[in-house]
């Protein structure tokens, strides 16, 4: 199963880029994972609600264009379902058994995801009720995906 994390904007912070690279390397033996960054849209100062919707729509188009055809799409959404690491592992295992070839996790920008992204999503997943820097979410998500594969394979992991 191929895993992609498709995210709005570049991870400019060195520690985040290093974390992404580390987990992409660690996920190699499990089929790999890649982070795909799509261009973010400039948010006008004092943007109106309509302008914010336009920003999300443009970013959403870019996110969806980066999703492989037929992929299972998981939208990261603070209002989504919250799973434990073990529950994520169960779902990843089920997707493998069901023959899912591609899973794409979508991470929006500061304004979140568009309605079109939510409409295309097969699942809305929350990592926490807390708010995180949207570039840092990439590392947190990759770590949880890595942990899920380790759990599935019965390999040791930090509890």
Automatic annotation (TrEMBL):
Subcellular location(s) of the protein: Cytoplasm
Keywords: Cytoplasm, Methyltransferase, rRNA processing, S-adenosyl-L-methionine, Transferase
One GO CC annotation: cytoplasm
Chief location category: cytoplasm
E.C. number: 2.1.1.177
CDD domains linked: RlmH-like
Reaction(s) this enzyme catalyzes, per UniProt: pseudouridine(1915) in 23S rRNA + S-adenosyl-L-methionine = N(3)-methylpseudouridine(1915) in 23S rRNA + S-adenosyl-L-homocysteine + H(+)
Enzyme class, UniProt record, top EC level: transferase
Pfam families: SPOUT_MTase
Annotated positions binding S-adenosyl-L-methionine: 76, 108, 127-132
SUPFAM superfamilies assigned to the protein according to its UniProt record, in alphabetical order: alpha/beta knot (SSF75217)
GO MF, one annotated term: rRNA (pseudouridine-N3-)-methyltransferase activity
Family: Belongs to the RNA methyltransferase RlmH family.
Function noted in UniProt: Specifically methylates the pseudouridine at position 1915 (m3Psi1915) in 23S rRNA.
Name by which UniProt lists this protein: Putative ribosomal RNA large subunit methyltransferase H
Source organism phylogeny: Archaea, Methanobacteriati, Methanobacteriota, Stenosarchaea group, Methanomicrobia
This protein's encoding gene: rlmH
């Amino acid at each position: 199963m191929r895993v992609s994390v498709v995210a709005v904007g570049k991870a400019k912070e060195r520690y985040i880029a290093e974390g992404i690279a580390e987990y992409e390397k660690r996920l190699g033996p499990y089929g790999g994972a890649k982070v795909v960054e799509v261009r973010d849209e400039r948010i006008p100062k004092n943007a109106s609600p309509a302008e914010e919707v336009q920003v999300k729509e443009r970013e959403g188009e870019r996110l969806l264009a980066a999703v492989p055809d037929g992929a299972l799409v998981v939208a990261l959404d603070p209002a989504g379902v919250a799973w434990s690491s073990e529950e994520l592992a169960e779902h990843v295992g089920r997707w493998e058994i069901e023959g899912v070839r591609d899973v794409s996790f979508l991470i929006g920008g500061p304004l979140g995801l568009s309605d079109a992204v939510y409409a295309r999503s097969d699942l809305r997943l929350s990592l926490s009720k807390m708010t995180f820097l949207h570039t840092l979410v990439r590392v947190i998500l990759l770590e949880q995906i890595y942990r899920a594969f380790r759990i599935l394979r019965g390999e040791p992991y930090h509890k």
